[in-house]
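Sequence only, no structure available. Ideas?
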Amino acid sequence: MGLVGICLGGTAVFVKAAVETDGDAPVLPIATVLLLAAGVALARWSITPSLRRTTGRRPGPPGPMGPPAPEPQNARLPEVDSDALDHTAVDADGFEHTVAALCARDGCPQVEVVGGAGDLGADVIATTADGLRVVIQCKHYGEGHRVGSQDLQRFGGTCFAVHEADVAVVVTTSDFTAPATEYAAACDIVCVDGEGLAAWTESLTPPPWDAAAAAVRAEE
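Reply:
I predicted one. Tokens follow.
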């Protein structure tokens, strides 16, 4: 309001002086400028209080555009109830989720099912409580269909070099051929056959990464 009064008062003084000088000064342009300045000041004065009422603070420079970034969410662990752990009632895809549920039950804080086209042999990737990376290939085979050495060789070519496993595990509902078992032993790949899977499911044995993880920690 003070600025508005000054502008209006200045306009009146200027007009009076111009009249006393017989109109020698350019009255109209200067008076127009002063009146416009008064209008801008009046508009700013009327808008600022409304902004204060709306925002609760003085108007300032605009903030970043767009909604705020969402808070990171932790990946949800698999369910670990009895149905989720029952590998006898699932297909090949369901078997991967069953193995993931076993990992979650046995203390892995991070578990992800990654099997599918282009998985390069990894079906489940889990992280143990002490930070070791466990890469698991799941073989849902029927009785009499054993996991062969070629299966192990394909997995052995990617589990460490590509997936950076600290512990590599192959879990099957059936069994392994002798050459497959020999190759796995030479490459430090843990093999879990049907009987071992049943014992793991019933918590009769420790999780398959325990012994291998101990060996990894001993080497560090």
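The two ends are 76 Å apart (CA to CA).
Hope that gets you unstuck.
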